[in-house]
């Protein structure tokens, strides 16, 4: 376990602008005086008492730190240091300054499948490394896929936010219903034992969206989305997938499989002919197919709008929430899954469901 330094972070770093916000605090650009280098400081509020609704419990932060310490890989954000005060833990992370991959892509006029694959490959390389280390991310979604520097001709993917990640011990059975309805695997919703295969489901969803601008299981409400996921009810709408290669569809079909044991692993994905073509015909197919940019831009604009809307609602609710905590006794897996990240986000179920419903 990394040393949680008791010193004041501000003795070493100048705290600069906000880079992003999570449910438990902010990520800010920080400047290290000795090295004259910029980093990202993730400021996490720690719960003061077991009953407090606001903040994270310390063990959850310890888990995130322990996982980040294991993961040294070019496609995974690096952890440099950890500071701790009475009410806050600050993770000093590698600064990822290129923004989200989806935003970068949405700025383009067009993108060939083979160009999109270059990004996907890096995501898969990061995942392959993570999974080899028996770590699952469990919260893969566009917001957590960033670029190191979008100015570079070949921007590097960086996977971020290991707040829901889990390090599996040998033979361990782990269940969790945390996650985001659009990207969550069916076994999570049904509260079954999880494995790294849950991340591969999310890769299937992300690839589907990337190619078509459609979200495969998105319903009118979170309940509907979760039901669609459980039913694995999706299709390739001809209108949206008219520019997509059959190899790409095959890739997605081998990930969006209900049985986690039948899904491709990250390692298998990397040798799928869509990612690593063998024949000339396969190479040509990829470079003749492109992503549905018009639809993708629409999807991304809506996603960004929802994110800001949710954030404003969440902030308003956090201000007004001073209720004592109360655990739900509802055993319904759908309802449990709707508590999305409740383990990390100590908000009552009805608040979260309400937020998502309004945003939908
Ligand atoms: P959530 O509650 O949504 O899961 P979180 O509290 O776990 O969020 P992160 O997702 O890690 O926090 O970070 C919140 C946002 O801060 C990110 O969406 C991203 O915009 C920004 N961010 C996080 N890490 C970095 C980084 N290393 N460099 C630059 N920006 C970052």
From TrEMBL:
PROSITE patterns: PROTEIN_KINASE_ATP, PROTEIN_KINASE_DOM, PROTEIN_KINASE_ST. The keyword Manganese does not apply. Its EC number is 2.7.11.1. One of its GO terms (biological process) is intracellular signal transduction. Keywords: ATP-binding, Kinase, Nucleotide-binding, Serine/threonine-protein kinase, Transferase. Residues 13-275 form the Protein kinase domain. This is non-specific serine/threonine protein kinase. It comes from Poecilia reticulata.
């Amino acid at each position: 376990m990394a040393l949680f330094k008791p010193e004041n972070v501000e003795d070493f770093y100048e705290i600069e602008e906000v880079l992003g916000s999570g449910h438990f605090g902010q990520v800010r650009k920080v400047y290290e005086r000795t090295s004259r280098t910029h980093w990202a400081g993730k400021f996490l509020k720690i719960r003061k008492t077991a009953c407090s609704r606001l903040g994270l419990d310390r063990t959850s932060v310890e888990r995130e730190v322990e996982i980040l310490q294991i993961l040294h890989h070019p496609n995974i954000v690096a952890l440099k240091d950890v500071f701790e005060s009475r009410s806050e833990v600050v993770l000093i992370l590698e600064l990822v300054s290129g923004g989200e991959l989806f935003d970068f892509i949405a700025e383009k006029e067009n993108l060939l499948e083979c160009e999109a694959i270059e990004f996907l490959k890096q995501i898969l390389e990061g995942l392959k490394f993570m999974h080899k280390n028996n770590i699952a991310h469990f919260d893969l979604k566009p917001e957590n896929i960033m670029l190191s520097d979008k100015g570079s001709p070949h921007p590097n993917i960086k996977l971020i936010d290991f707040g829901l990640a889990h390090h599996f011990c040998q033979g361990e059975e782990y269940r969790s219903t945390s996650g985001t309805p659009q990207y969550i695997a069916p076994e999570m919703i049904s509260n079954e034992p999880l494995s790294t295969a849950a991340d591969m489901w999310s890769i299937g969803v992300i690839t589907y969206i990337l190619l078509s601008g459609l979200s495969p299981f998105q319903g009118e409400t979170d309940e509907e989305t979760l039901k669609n996921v459980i039913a694995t009810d999706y299709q390739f709408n001809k209108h949206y997938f008219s520019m997509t290669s059959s190899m790409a569809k095959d890739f997605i079909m081998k990930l969006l499989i209900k049985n986690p044991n039948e899904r491709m692993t990250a390692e298998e994905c990397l040798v799928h002919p869509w990612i690593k073509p063998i024949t000339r015909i396969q190479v040509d197919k990829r470079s003749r197919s492109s992503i549905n940019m018009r639809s993708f831009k629409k999807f991304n604009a809506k996603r960004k709008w929802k994110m800001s809307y949710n954030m404003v609602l969440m902030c308003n609710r956090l201000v007004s929430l001073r209720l004592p905590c109360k655990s739900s006794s509802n055993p319904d897996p759908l309802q449990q899954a709707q508590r999305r990240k409740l383990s990390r986000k100590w908000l009552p179920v009805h608040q979260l469901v309400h937020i998502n419903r309004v945003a939908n």
